[in-house]
Amino acid sequence: MLHVHYSSPLDLTPAFFCKSCEVIQPPHEGISYFNILECDCTFTLDTHRLQKKYLQLQRLLHPDNFSQKSEIEQGYSESQSALVNKAYETLLKPLSRGLYMLELQGLNIGEGTDSAVNSELLMELMEINEALDAVQTPQEANEIGQDTKGKLANLTEQIDSALNKGELQTAKALLTKMKYFANIEEKVKEKLSSYM
Questions:
Q1: Which of 33, 57, 116, 173 could be disulfide-bonded to 87 (CB atoms 3.0-4.6 Å)?
Q2: Domains of the chain by residue range
């Protein structure tokens, strides 16, 4: 009798190459990005390790290495390389990493993430944005930047804790909040570069 083993994306290990003949394989659907890049499935993952693994895989899988191979192998290399890129881009940034972790837990992230924003937060964001518009010196922009960095660090801890406890709706609301503060951080960077 055939036993079908249903494994979750986190149980699977990607096989980029055949173990016996070392020929590149097609990408395996349903493997988690964490497994592709061999890193812990945690919100506070080690991004240096992530980067190292990404570069190592891209050296192995890059289509340039397969220009002398068959068309099929060239195609597999392009697909594998694109998948590794997508996995890396998703896991590198805390926001996309957190949303991806929620998806792995079965919580579909629709467009409706903004409904979690309460009026108190909207007021706070409005005030920060107004202060940023009124900034006259790099020092003033820097102050807002440092303050935002602190808020993002605090949110990272809260999101990590919510995900560890399986409180997915809380994590989703906190990630929405993180999105807004990450936007402010970007605006601060733009402001500071305008003083260069």
A1: 33
A2: 1-92, 112-194
- Which pLDDT belongs to residue 143? 94
Helix, strand, coil percentages for the chain (3-state, nearest 5) = 65, 0, 35
The identity of residue 143, as a single letter, is E
Cα dihedral: 41, 45, 39, 5 (round 10) = 0
Please write down the HEC assignment for all residues of 2-67: CCCCCCCCCCCCCCCECCCCCCECCCCCCCCHHHHCCCCCCCCCCHHHHHHHHHHHHHHHCHHHHC
The answer to whether 181 and 117 are in contact (CB under 8 A) is no
pLDDT digits (tens, 9 = 90+) for 15-29: 788 777 778 888 877
Predicted TM-score (pTM) of the model is 0.82
pLDDT per residue as tens digits for the range 36-48: 999 999 999 999 9
d(CA 183, CA 148): 10
In this structure, CATH architecture of domain 1-92: Orthogonal Bundle (1.10)
Q: Note the pLDDT tens digit of each residue in 65-96.
A: 888 888 998 898 999 999 999 999 999 999 99
**Is 76 within 8 Å of 25 (Cβ atoms)?**
yes
- What DSSP character marks residue 115? G
Q: Which CATH class is domain 112-194?
A: mainly alpha
Q: Which of 46, 45, 43 is nearest to 161 (CA)?
A: 43
